[in-house]
Q: What sequence folds into this?
């Protein structure tokens, strides 16, 4: 049996649900009272996919402004980045775009990107047009997922690979 | 009401070095919170035009009745004065932060050589009334010019609201240009005008040779800490003294540095004087809130000392060795294991020591951050006394499922997370194997020790600080101090005692104070500080006897209550 190691970094504004998404992946739970991440948290996630042993190391970064300068430390050493925005906050979507720019500038294209529109259980409060988001993801060659850490919609890891 | 007494003092002065908890080889920098404060305030960190602290330019405007009229020569003082503390505490509860409602006399009794100029300036427009009225015709500093009058009226209403004013202590942080950064109570956006007035006060007085430090009106005090980039203000109706409030502001200031570093702060304001610092401090408010709440409860701050989790010394040595042997990583500066705001052990790089203030900020970071419980974390932290110019990187993880003990590995190398993660796992295995985690859990759950274990019936509670170790010990808060109100009152008594003994105009060695609910004895030597609380009917000689007995008891237990060695990597 072969095993694969992957390094993943999760980026996005504060409060968009990065930690919630990671916790959903790692332990398949949702806790509505998570507190904001300080610095960055490290998770590992092991699973079997198609007879491959997959070991993913995840850096869940803090969205708070003062930690932004620390981000390169994490994405420089990653294979893939998940960029998360909150579908109920246009601001978080714009912020996600600025993350993309930063990644494009500072990594030489070897970082796979993937965009998550989180909190899609809150459809009635949606501020970010889904087509716009799809277009944007396509324009940077990234896949786009509508997800919800709360309902676990869209968060089956197999889909990611 | 204070009388000098010459006999009856504690008989056997304990030789320095043999007092309980004496440490020849302390891992913490031994400090005195007040001495430290004094040197801190006179350092040259202030902006150049405000650099005249040492020339006696601290302006203290004090209500005449507050002026102490005691004999400065007395080193031993005895007093019977229940009203001193109790009344002030009652007042504290009754009054709101309504400065205009309390009798505001013309500010008098200025305690500085430059007093004339200050009186003149202030006399034109009593600062206290400015603050309470906040009428819109006061000239507004630059930060407020964007406000329309509607907003201002709303603000004025807000600061007059009962809800806002009933708070006992307000703390504000503003930039040198008067921009609001933080308010302990209420949304700082609604306090733009108030902060503008504060900034105006600071700058009007700062224009001359003076530095605004304190305004007192009745039971209300406003204390100002003016630093290079920030102005910090405490407005309190409490018995806390000016130096005590100033010390708290110093802590808040250092908390800002801990989040941002001094160099970053200076750079930001050099580039843009008007910068809205809240952008960089989002999410850090809870550190200020938590710090201020803890400072209202925990004597470690005014004592300038750290409390250790009681443990058998052999157990503590095992823990320290488990850490020292498994964390041999280049550039690892400190490894710290803590539980419940108490130190379990600290292993350090040979040439470095930790300042208690820095350790208090670490405690604050851990107790205010739930997120460390979810996963291993890696975060920058500045320890201002260690190096205010830069960050250390902290690997933070809990050792047990219940999240009792938390291990912090602090390094200057930002790339060693995975190395430290391996160290942590090895350390944890050792701690499990040698049953250290179980011992820690037992001690945490036991919640310290009880006063009754000392075997002195009339003794209710005490604080004991070993000065050389910069550590203190105290029993659990039991009846009558088990309720929040009573514990707060006890805390106030300790603050009162500490302040009276340390008061720079008349430092005392021993203070015996008879109140209506309890009798207090404070005793400070070059080796220790002891604050003891007895029932109200205890005589002075009985109290002194008890204290001697207490010291013997602490000496017997010192290996459990204090960390007397200083492990290194
Ligand atoms: N309704 C809903 N709420 C969510 C969802 N995901 C997260 N939240 C909530 O959003 C808030 C923020 O979630 P976090 O996971 O802490 O956000 P974060 O991106 O990690 O935030 P930082 O660590 O500060 O950067 C929490 O109150 C979550 O309960 C979701 O899918 N649906
Ligand atoms: Mg998070």
A:
């Amino acid at each position: 049996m072969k095993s694969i190691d992957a390094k993943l970094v999760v980026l996005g504004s504060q409060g968009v649900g990065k930690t919630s998404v990671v916790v959903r992946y790692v332990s398949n739970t949702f806790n509505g009272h998570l507190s904001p991440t300080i610095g960055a948290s490290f998770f590992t996630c092991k699973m079997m996919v198609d007879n491959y042993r997959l070991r993913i190391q995840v850096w869940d970064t803090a969205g708070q402004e003062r930690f932004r300068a620390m981000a390169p430390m994490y994405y420089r050493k990653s294979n893939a980045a998940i960029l998360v925005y909150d579908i109920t906050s246009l601001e978080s979507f714009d912020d996600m775009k600025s993350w993309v720019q930063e990644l494009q500038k500072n990594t030489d294209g070897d970082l796979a990107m993937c965009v998550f529109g989180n909190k899609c259980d809150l459809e009635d409060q949606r501020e970010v047009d889904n087509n716009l988001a799809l277009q944007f993801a396509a324009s940077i060659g990234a896949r786009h997922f509508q997800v919800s850490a709360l309902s676990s919609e869209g968060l089956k890891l197999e889909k990611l690979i | 009401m204070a009388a000098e007494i010459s006999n009856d003092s504690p008989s056997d002065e304990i030789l320095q070095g043999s007092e309980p908890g004496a440490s020849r080889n302390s891992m913490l920098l031994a400090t005195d919170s007040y001495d430290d404060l004094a040197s801190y305030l006179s350092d040259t960190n202030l902006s150049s035009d405000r650099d005249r602290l040492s020339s006696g330019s601290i302006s203290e405007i004090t209500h005449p009745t507050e002026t102490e009229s005691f004999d400065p020569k007395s080193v031993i003082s005895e007093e019977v004065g229940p009203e001193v503390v109790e009344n002030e505490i009652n007042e504290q509860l009754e009054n709101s932060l309504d400065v205009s409602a309390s009798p505001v006399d013309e500010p008098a009794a200025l305690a500085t050589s430059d007093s004339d100029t200050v009186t003149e300036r202030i006399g034109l427009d009593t600062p206290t009334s400015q603050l309470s009225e906040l009428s819109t015709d006061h000239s507004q500093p630059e930060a407020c010019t964007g406000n329309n009058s509607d907003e201002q009226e709303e603000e004025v209403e807000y600061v007059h609201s009962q809800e806002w004013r009933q708070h006992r202590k307000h703390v504000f942080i503003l930039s040198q240009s008067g921009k609001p950064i933080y308010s302990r109570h209420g949304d700082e956006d609604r306090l733009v005008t108030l902060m503008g007035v504060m900034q105006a006060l600071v700058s009007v007085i700062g224009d001359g040779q003076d530095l605004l430090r304190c305004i007192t009106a009745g039971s209300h005090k406003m204390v100002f800490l003016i630093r290079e980039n920030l102005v910090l203000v405490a407005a309190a109706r409490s018995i806390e003294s000016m130096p005590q409030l100033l010390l708290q502001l110093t802590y808040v200031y250092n908390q800002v540095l801990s989040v941002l570093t001094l160099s970053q702060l200076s750079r930001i304001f050099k580039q843009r004087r008007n910068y809205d610092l809240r952008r960089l401090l989002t999410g850090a408010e809870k550190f200020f809130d938590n710090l201020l709440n803890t400072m209202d409860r925990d004597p470690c701050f005014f004592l300038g000392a750290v409390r250790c989790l009681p443990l058998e010394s052999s157990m503590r040595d095992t823990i320290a060795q488990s850490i020292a042997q498994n964390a041999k990583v280049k550039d690892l500066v400190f490894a710290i294991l803590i539980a419940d705001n108490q130190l379990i052990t600290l292993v350090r790089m040979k040439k470095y020591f930790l300042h208690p203030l820095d350790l208090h900020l670490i405690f604050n970071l851990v107790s205010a951050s739930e997120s460390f419980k979810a996963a291993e974390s890696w975060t920058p932290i500045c320890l201002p006394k260690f190096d205010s110019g830069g960050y250390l990187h902290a690997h933070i993880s809990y050792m047990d499922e219940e999240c009792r003990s938390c291990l912090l590995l602090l390094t200057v190398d930002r790339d060693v997370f995975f190395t430290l993660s391996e160290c942590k796992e090895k350390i944890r295995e050792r701690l499990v194997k040698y049953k250290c985690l179980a011992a820690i859990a037992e001690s945490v759950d036991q919640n310290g020790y009880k006063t009754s274990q000392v075997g002195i019936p009339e003794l209710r509670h005490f604080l004991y600080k070993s000065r050389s170790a910069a550590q203190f010990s105290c029993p659990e808060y039991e009846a009558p101090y088990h309720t929040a109100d009573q514990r707060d009152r006890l805390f106030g008594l300790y603050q009162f005692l500490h302040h009276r003994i340390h008061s720079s105009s008349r430092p005392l060695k021993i203070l015996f104070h008879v109140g209506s609910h309890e009798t207090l004895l404070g005793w400070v030597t070059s080796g220790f500080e002891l604050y003891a609380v007895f029932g109200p009917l205890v005589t002075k000689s009985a109290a002194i006897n008890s204290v001697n007995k207490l010291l013997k008891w602490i000496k017997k237990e010192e290996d459990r209550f204090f960390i007397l060695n200083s492990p290194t990597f």
About this structure: Residues 1-8, 44-75, 81-147 of chain B have pLDDT under 50 and may be disordered.
